[in-house]
Structure formats: C-alpha cells, structure tokens
Amino acid sequence: MKNTPLNRRQSLAVLGSTLALPSAVWAQPGWKPTQTINYVIGVAAGGSVDLYARGIKSGLETLNLVNGQTVVADNKPGAGGLLALQQLQRSRGNAHNLGTFHTGSLAGQVTGILKADMREYVPVAMLVEETTLVAVRADSPLKTAKDLLAALRRDPGSVKIAVAPLKGLNTHLAIAKPLKVAGIDITKLTVVPFRSSADSMSALLGGHVDVVSATGPTVVPMAQAGKVRIIASAAAERGTGPLAGVLTWREQGVAADYVSYNGVLLPPGVDAEQIRFWEQALKQVAVSKDWMALVEKSGNKPMFKGYVDSHRYLQDELKATQALVAELGLDAK
Predict the structure, then answer these.
(1) 22-33: average pLDDT
(2) How many other CB atoms are found less than 10 A from the CB of residue 106?
(3) What is the pLDDT of residue 264?
(4) What architecture (CATH level 2) is domain 131-252?
C-alpha cells in the first residue's frame, strides 16, 4: 500500500473522503462523545508513540473535536503493549476509549512478544509515517554506517545496540534488516532493550551503549543539540527538514529500508457511526498546522489513512512482517 504524506496544499482534500462500510452495521446515528475519553498508551512516557499520542490528544481538545470532553492520556507500558491492549479489550464496544496503533505492535504479534491478536481491534486511522534512525554519541569513533559495519564484521557482539521497548519490535527490525543485508550475523549482535527510546537515548549519552536505533522524536533533538550523530536512516529515500543531511542505508550501499506508522485504535465491538466519528475527528487533527509541525520537526511525515486503508495495512503488514522475521531468523517466542 502506498501512503500519502500530507502537505499544506493537499491537506484540505483529506477532509472530503468518506468511510466505506457495509450499511448493515450502521448504528447510533450522529454518535459523539458524552463523557471523558481515555486514551491508553502502550508504552512509557518519552518515546515517539507517547509523543504522538499526546499530540493527538492535544489536537482533539484544542480543535474542539470531542464535544467538549476531556481526553486523558493513560500510559500503560508492559508486556510489549499487552497491558494497554487488555485494557482496551475490556472496553469492548465503548468508543470513549482509544489506544495506540503502531507498527511495533504488529511486529510484536508476529515475533510472539505481544500475546494478543491485533486483528481483534479497530485501526481507525494512521497519522504518521516514521523513519527509524541509527545514532551514536557525538564523540563516538563510529563516524559513519560503514564504520559500524566494519566493527560488526570484526566482532558482531562488540557493539551494544539499544532498542525499545523490547527486542523483536520495530526499532530492532529496522536495524537488523540492513545489518543482515550487509552480511552481518545478526544472531550474534549485542542488542539491549530499554523501556522507552528516551531511556535508550539516556543510556547512549551515559556511555552504557554504543548505538541507538530509534525514531526521530527521540534522536533529532539530541542531534540538533550536538550530543549525538545520526549515521543512517532506514527510509527508502533521503528525508527533508532535520534529516536532509542524513544518508539512508541505501545511499551507503546497503539495499534495505524499513518504515513504521503511528495511529489510533478503537476497542473491538464499536459500530460504524463511532468509527465514522473518530475517523472524521482524526482527519482534522492530521491536517492541522500544530500536528504537521510536531511531526515534521523530527523529520517524519504527516499523513492520513482512515479506517479502510488502516485495516488493510494491518492485514498486509502482518504478512510482510512474518516474512521479514523469517528472513531475519528472529523466531517467534
């Protein structure tokens, strides 16, 4: 599925799209929130999933899209996101509950880390196309991706690589894929998981690990402050804004890329009018100036896919991730 990044000229067109669902499932005509909305975030505070969830919360409230109700951000890390999903599962049919939808959850299901089936939930929208970056400390002897590859060829276990929140999720896959393509034995890597990418970055700055694999919101501010150096991007093409000067793996001779997405889940059992309400509300967040600025400042792409395309993505990405995990030799737990 080809995704459609938004720019300010295109953004208004998004608002005109409609949700195609079987007419038999329509219910609760004109549904809108009538009580506090709980937005359960399946990671600890500080990483990109948390940042974007809070940006969505802010947009929903600031743009007055939730009928005057409050959106409560509820961080529920643990078990690869399972605790948050279990809470959403207990809210079956109650559209006053939102959850985080991101590629890491799909990777977790495939690798067996996440003991849940993402197909049971309702992916109502995707709002961010994320690039995973590889960063080292500013004083690191690893100046480029070629330096990293050379060190790993000498001894695959000699470099400590931080990922979050667990091995086998998107930040791990995003670095394991190009390293394997480059001929590194990824089964011998020293991969260190942290609760959040913010914790990964703290470990890097503290000298406890050598490399971080994380997305823009964690990495870019530290690079702009001169504390880390970004040595590779997993994007298929060179980025813009703060990533305009960052080489992709492909530009450095490694034919691999990896893209992840962030969005919003609804509980199982919601009806089509509830889906329609949230799809339309989230469209308006997606085209807002504040949202675009939040996403673009870390080098990521604001975009929008509604329920139909998000559901299709979930199904397709599960199959693609199964193939990738098998290719990388990362057996399910």
Answers:
(1) 59
(2) 28
(3) 98
(4) 3-Layer(aba) Sandwich (3.40)
Residue 98: closest CA among 36, 22, 31:
36
- Which residues does 195 contact at the CB level (< 8 Å), separation at least 6? 43, 44, 77, 164, 165
Percent of the chain with pLDDT over 90: 75
pLDDT in tens, 171-211: 999 999 999 999 999 999 999 999 889 899 999 999 999 99
Residue 25 has pLDDT above 70, yes or no: no
Instruction: Domain ranges for the chain, please list them.
Output: 11-130+260-328, 131-252
Q: Give the whole-angstrom CA distance, residue 156 versus residue 237.
A: 27
Cα 222 to Cα 159, 206, 242: the distances in Å are 20, 13, 11
* Cα distance between residue 307 and residue 276, in whole Å: 8
- CATH number of the structural domain 11-130+260-328: 3.40.190.150
Strands 160-163 and 37-41, bridge-based pairing: unpaired
Sign of CA dihedral 279, 284, 286, 287: positive
- Answer whether 11-130+260-328 and 131-252 agree in fold: yes
Note the helical H segments in 46-114.
Answer: 48-62, 82-90, 103-111
